[in-house]
Amino acid sequence: MVKKKQDLSSDPADTPSGSSETPGSPDGAASTAPAEAETTAAESTAAESTEASIASAPASPFSLLFQAPPPPPPGSGTPALPDDDEAESSGSSRRRSRRRSGEAPRDGDDAPGTTVKVRQPRKQPEPITEPQKVKGSTRLEAKKQRRRDGRDAGRRRPVITEAEFLARRESVDRQMIVRSKFGRIQIGVLEDGVLVEHYVARAQDASLIGNVYLGRVQNVLPSMEAAFVDIGRGRNAVLYSGEVDWEAAAAAAEEAGREKNQARKIELALKPGDRVLVQVTKDPVGHKGARLTSQISLPGRYLVYVPGGSMNGISRKLPDTERARLKKILKEVLPDDAGVIVRTAAEGATEEQLTLDVQRLTAQWAEIERAVETQQAPALLHSEPDLLLKIVRDVFNEDFQKLVIAGDDARATIEKYLTAVAPDLLDRVEIYADEVDSFDKFRITEQIEKALDRKVWLPSGGSLIIDRTEAMTVVDVNTGKFVGSGGNLEETVTKNNLEAAEEIVRQLRLRDIGGIIVVDFIDMVLESNRDLVLRRLVECLSRDRTKHQVAEVTSLGLVQMTRKKLGLGLLESFSETCDVCAGRGLIVHHDPVFKHRGQQAEPQQSSSRGRRGRGGNGGGGGGNGGGNQAASAPKTTTHEITDDVRNALAKIAAKTVHQEVSSDAPSEAAPEQIADAVAAAPVEILDIPIEPVRVEKARPVVDPDAVLGSVLDALPEPKKPGQGRGRRSRRASSAAGSPDAG
After folding, report:
1. Is the peptide bond before 378 cis (omega within 30 degrees of 0)?
2. How far is Cα 200 from Cα 574, in angstroms, rounded to an integer?
3. In the beta sheet, which residues pair with residue 200?
4. Pairwise CA distance, residues 496 & 533, whole Å
5. Is residue 143 within 8 Å of 295, Cβ to Cβ?
């Protein structure tokens, strides 16, 4: 074989050099002969070496022989590399050069044999000037993103062990207090004596959530991907494309003669006038109508029944062992054409209890299907029970130690429901018979009043400021009076944030705050402390039964989260909008307002001036005259005449006023009569305005000018210049106490 290869490769007819001739060379035949001679010599040498190697090789049939191909003969197709001297002498070389677009040519770019490649700049993406649209439905794409994020979060969520589940249950003392009073029912949930949830049920404020209606489509808006449905409640409800049951819509389109396999667009699935089976997921609020879904679900005691569903889910709050047990039971009792979502309350439920729950919900769905065929749209097909039964069904389970009921009507309703659904919980029901109100005894009223405030105090002295806006709820964390005990600032701040995380979750549950929630914790330097606070927040949220999602911490140190609202809310239940300011808290004027600042400053200024005038002059006598009157209080102010002033006036008047007194009157009564006369005279003595005293008995007529003149004459004369001012007090009380006054 090797010999054959050598023969083929050495055939001069196959080589390009053997059949080619140098163009333009007259001696082509002469130059070919020496080349052929050299080729023959090389072939003979290679053949001899090959035979020698084969002869020396082992005779084993499994041995391998590796042989390099013979070198190409001179003058073959592969050109020989020129020597350095030849390359230098030839002077022909190739050089590559690169430069960016817009740069000036470099030296040597124009030389022969030089290839210049101009590098084009990368194209920058053009800025978007017009709104872009999503391929397909925007709401369906948003729903897919939320599900994708939820799956990613579920994968990162640690698995709850059975020990942690039991420890969480046993570490909290839960009680439910129900009070039926004044035509309403109030429900409070206590954890270790602290109020964490509160609900108010009124007959006139019945919720629509969970009700199933047979509605009629009124209008479809493709640009909003929504349809407005009349459910018989006055205001039209809204059905978004993300809540449409597309399988049922395709079946209805096929019955109506439309195309079955069409794009998932709400304008193709629903037409004005179509009948649609919907369920309310959100009550109407303000000018917004109720929110609907065509994916019906019927809640029960232990599970949620989803007609036509193909997926089964189990609460993540249950341990793995319990999840496996419930999944095995559901395979036997669940119909093939329905799906279920197992609730946390199903923990420890027997197969018989789950079977009864499934049968009851299946019967409810059968009644709804029969009503669809007979009723005319719009019509109510199924209504959820009142709030009392819904709370008992959804919240009250084996985690609660007792259920205290105050009120005969609430007691009868709860006992009837528990007897039919959960008879094992009847022994935990207690009847409240104390004279003191149940909410006062368990301090629920006090905690509700504190929860209605904007500011919430923490046990260590810190505080929370909770502000609600149209778009979100903002919670600000402050250290307040908490200064720490040892350690440094980072440790103090972290302790305050840990307390705040626990209280924030309690306030969210108690106030029933929903939507977007932003928490501004105090800045922490260490990443480990930030993770600790975030982990504590998530752990406390595990007690919240509603749907919630905690996002990562933003670059500004803010924690973003969302929470689904359960009811009306605590603030909405105990408040009403102000008619004057329309709930804004401010009264807006048409002109700039500065009057309130001036009115606050003027009384302070006048009072300070009055104090300075009285203190500096010592309440001086009449010698200072008009000077004291300018610095005194306003003239409208009146002063009461005390006994000391009355006695002083009597003694002064007794020495200055001379009246004719009859011999029949006793001499001791003259000073008193004169004092009464002086007090009745409307004069100002010592710069004090004196109101006349009304006395029924007859009073002698006294000339006020004469009395005033006599009083001024009785005062000591001022000292001459150079003698200095005396420091003797000129107060009326001191003058009255001196026997030589006057």
Report:
1. yes
2. 10
3. 186
4. 10
5. no
The span from the CA of 656 to the CA of 710, in Å, is 5
- The first and second tokens of residue 255, run together, are 């019955």
Cα–Cα distance, 475 to 462 (Å, whole number): 13
Tokens representing 259 are: 């195309």
Q: In whole angstroms, give the CA distance from residue 293 to residue 28.
A: 95
Helix, strand or coil, per DSSP, at residue 485: coil
End-to-end CA distance of the chain: 160
* Alpha carbon distances (Å) from 329 to 225, 319, 337, 644: 40, 16, 17, 99
Long-range (24+ apart) CB contacts under 8 A made by 379-383 are 379/213, 379/214, 379/232, 380/211, 380/212, 380/213, 380/231, 380/232, 381/212, 381/213, 381/214, 381/277, 382/211, 382/212, 382/298, 383/210, 383/211, 383/212
Separation of alpha carbons 500 and 332, rounded Å: 47
CB atoms within 10 A of CB 326: 24
Helix (H, G, I), strand (E, B) or coil at 382: strand
CA distance 679 to 694: 9
pTM metric for this prediction = 0.60
pLDDT digits (tens, 9 = 90+) for 28-86: 444 444 444 444 444 455 555 555 444 444 555 566 666 667 776 665 555 555 554 55
Beta bridge partners of 465: 455, 476
Q: Hey, which residues does 306 pair with through a beta bridge?
A: 339
Q: What is the pLDDT of residues 702-723, one digit of tens each?
A: 676 677 777 777 777 766 666 6
CA distance 733 to 388: 76
The residue count of the chain comes to 742
What does the block give as tokens for 232?
């018989």
Phi/psi at 690 (5° precision): -115, 125
